[in-house]
């Protein structure tokens, strides 16, 4: 089996490639660093030649940048066209749990456009919506800082380690297309402020964490369960506490 990973040099792309290679799968590592550009379409057909499946883990900008819509619309259209031409039989796109509830934010609205392009393409597909990765929580917490205080609403999250998410994505791509949305998440539901307190304690961050029910999540008003999967998603075993402990130990002895 041959699988092309578009966006192979990013956090998830790198991890997915490693999983696929350990499984003995022939992998095409496609990214702008080796001349394959999803946004312009340059090199896509070459990257997909002979590929059975395509994993789209391309990304653009941050949660607050409006150029994400242009990127996902153009890159998605280019990858889907190349996949049709190359005879790809399984198109897998990585998205975010709650995307359809976060459309007040430009980035998530753009992700929903990406999902819709895939579903309307006529190709056999799997859309994998993942909860937040542990690796991103430092940025999520820092985005809540106001005058030296971390202000967070009491939102529930069910985050997952990027390594475990990558394993799930790789296995889904190597299997039969679901022709549906599949959700993946970690093993436990946590309150965002509690995670923030554990994070600042572990990193000796002196900033206080305060509960603020008026705070929005990247500009979006959400109910308490607005970031949780709607299905009984569970693919990860590693808890945030254990991941954080391992991460701190590895940094201490690096």
UniProtKB/TrEMBL annotation:
Keywords per UniProt: NADP
Span of domain NAD(P)-binding: 42-132
PANTHER family with a match to the protein in the record: BLL4366 PROTEIN, NITROGEN METABOLITE REPRESSION PROTEIN NMRA FAMILY MEMBER
The protein, known as: NmrA-like family protein
Species in which this protein is naturally found: Rhizobium tibeticum
């Amino acid at each position: 089996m041959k699988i092309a990973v578009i966006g192979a040099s990013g956090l998830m792309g790198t991890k997915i490639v490693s999983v696929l290679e350990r499984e003995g799968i022939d992998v095409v590592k496609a990214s702008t660093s080796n001349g394959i550009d999803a946004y312009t379409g340059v090199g896509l057909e070459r990257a997909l030649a002979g590929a059975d499946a395509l994993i789209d883990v391309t990304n653009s900008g941050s949660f607050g940048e409006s150029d994400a819509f242009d990127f996902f619309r153009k890159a998605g259209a280019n990858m889907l066209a190349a996949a049709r031409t190359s005879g790809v039989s399984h198109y897998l796109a990585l998205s975010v749990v709650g995307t359809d509830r976060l459309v007040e934010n430009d980035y998530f609205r753009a992700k929903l456009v990406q999902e819709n392009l895939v579903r309307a393409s006529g190709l056999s597909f799997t859309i994998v919506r993942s909860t937040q990765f542990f690796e991103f929580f430092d940025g999520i917490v820092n985005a809540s800082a106001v005058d030296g205080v971390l202000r967070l609403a009491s939102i529930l999250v069910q985050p997952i380690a990027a390594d475990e998410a990558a394993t799930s994505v790789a296995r889904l791509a190597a299997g039969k297309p679901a022709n549906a949305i599949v959700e993946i998440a970690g093993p436990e539901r946590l309150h965002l402020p509690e995670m923030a307190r554990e994070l600042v304690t572990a990193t000796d961050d002196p900033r206080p964490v305060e509960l603020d029910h008026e705070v929005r999540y990247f500009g979006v008003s959400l109910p308490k369960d607005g970031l949780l999967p709607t299905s009984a998603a569970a693919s990860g075993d590693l808890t945030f506490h254990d991941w954080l402990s391992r991460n701190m130990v590895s940094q201490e002895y690096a």
